[in-house]
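Re: your question about RNA polymerase subunit sigma-70

S., sorry for the slow reply, the queue was backed up all week. Below is exactly what I fed in.
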Amino acid sequence: MSQSNAAPADFEALVQAIRPELHQYSARMLGSALDAEDVVQEALAKAYAALPATKVANMRGWLFRITHNKAIDFLRRASQQRLEYLDESAQLAEPDPPLEEGELVALALSAFLALPAKQRSCVILKDVMGYSLADMSEMLDATVPEIKAALHRGRARLREMGQNLPADMPAPSEEERRLIARYIDRFNARDFETVRAMLAEDVRLELFNRISLRGRAPASEYFHRYDQSRDWLLAPGTVEGRPAILVRDPQAPAAPPTYFMLVEWEGGRIAFIRDYRYTPYVMRDAAVQG
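Result:
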């Protein structure tokens, strides 16, 4: 795309194609497929708001840059630590080999958190996503020697680890299990009147890649749409160690789930629903059990 103000239609078309890549990148930067979708949503909202006043020479690179910065902001808020910048030291006469597919599969998302952010970013873009050094240089505003040095260090560290890192996630309480089981039971029974009664007055609803709602009345349309469809069957499970609602195809209930929902409770009422129906690519990076 030439350097010009991008049209909203062009932006929307590219977003639909690139959103899974932005999520894949963010999931490994943050160590969580769940937090990654929040970051991608924030990044795309920021990009869309900036469109009218921004001249974009490389839309894909621009979106990756914004997503990268949002991920860094998230990590800074979470850790309250300074993040390491790239440097040009430790350059190699011969490049070290990239991580192989088998090595990448064996590494949990949380393993990438052992790397400083810039090393992590370089390994993800090169070895996971297959970007060229030239593309990475533009996305990260870094020189090729800096990127090579970061790749060397990051690859060496991940190979040292060589195995999944344990995730410390507290088990859900019996009360939370009971509430989720009741929600699933009433949802599957299409008893949406009872389901709506479980909502807090100021409930938040995030139907990713579609709509955000707040309040019991606005959320009613969400349940109406589920009542009109026949392509779902809810079951309990976990995602990244958190209690989750897995959604399966009712025609193939033994098959892997197609997507999932997360529900948060306050005072026995539903305070927040996160529904990944329209972002099935999240399943690729999420640790799902159930």
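Residues 174-289 form a domain with the Nuclear Transport Factor 2; Chain: A, fold (CATH 3.10.450.50). DSSP finds eleven helices and nine strands in the chain.

Happy to talk it through on Thursday.
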